[in-house]
Amino acid sequence: MKLDLLAALNEECAARRATVLITEIASGQQRLVREKDIPADPLRHRLQEHLTLRTSGLIEEGDKQFFLDVHVPPVKLLVIGAVHVSQALAPMAAGLDLMVTIIDPRTAFASPERFPGVALLAEWPDEVMRRIRLDRNTAVLTLTHDPKIDDRALAEALRSDCFYIGALGSRKSHAQRLERLRATGFGEDDLVRIHGPVGLNIGAVSPGEIAISILAEIISLLRQDRRQARKATEG
Amino acid sequence: MITSDADILKEAEAWKRAGKGVAVATVVETWGSAPRPVGSHLVIDEAANFLGSVSGGCVEGAVIMEAMDVIADGRPRMLEFGVANETAWQVGLTCGGRIRIYLERVEDGSDHLAGRPGSGQALA
Predict the structure, then answer these.
(1) Interface predicted TM-score (ipTM) of this complex, two decimals
(2) Of the partner residues A4, A28, A43, the one whose CB lies closest to the CB of residue B110
């Protein structure tokens, strides 16, 4: 691998753009395909397949074998609520290579002192969410317990392709939340997308434990294909 | 220290720029229950410092040994590891899987193909 190629790859990763390093196995020849050049690439269909699945892999093309080293931007996690659970969750999420942004219009909560080194926006979540792109690589989590803030974010999330929507709250408050969202026109197909009560049931109590149960739930969706493959082999 | 694959390759670049010999190992194929997915990286410098992983720690030692040769002669290699034979002290994967690893040296200078749009026709 040429140093310039490695540097270009690192530059694309740092800019959070998808990139594929292609190696022809027999000759060791390599080239880099940047996100913007994918549509015009001779291998575009294979590249797209791998980018969608977020997986690297070997492919055969003609009589040649290529390895596609696929680099995709990290998953975005929007956390609504600069609360105690968010303080525990932010560093853990960084450790999982999730790109966390914390959003809370209440400036007393959304203070940099409470969240050192974390991307923090003291704004209404729906405004932020309309500004940034919510795509299939995005997870949205509401933690404020305040319907004024959480409901706006949930409505925005439901209108997007994001792969995960989680809402903190008891069964009772979740039922009330669904009722409010129904009243604004969301149907059952929309509402089943919301994970509430949020997180895997591990009996979590402390903010750190709740953060782990939520992150575990997010991972379980990110790795759904692997879970299903394993279930299939276990019969 | 947190090490995503992006951090690992950044470190390989930094080592090379610091004048060290560097090799990059990449998992290119797995069968059965391999511990690290395809695309995982392990980077190694000439003094056998390393970052990242290609298995659960089972074959890293062997890959690092091989990397010393790759750094010396520059010839890329494909390594394959199968099930460990415990009685024979053979290097392998105790989980019963098999993996293939591509091991290459980071070369000086630039590649004329590097990322130039439309320049890759010769390769595909």
Answers:
(1) 0.79
(2) A4
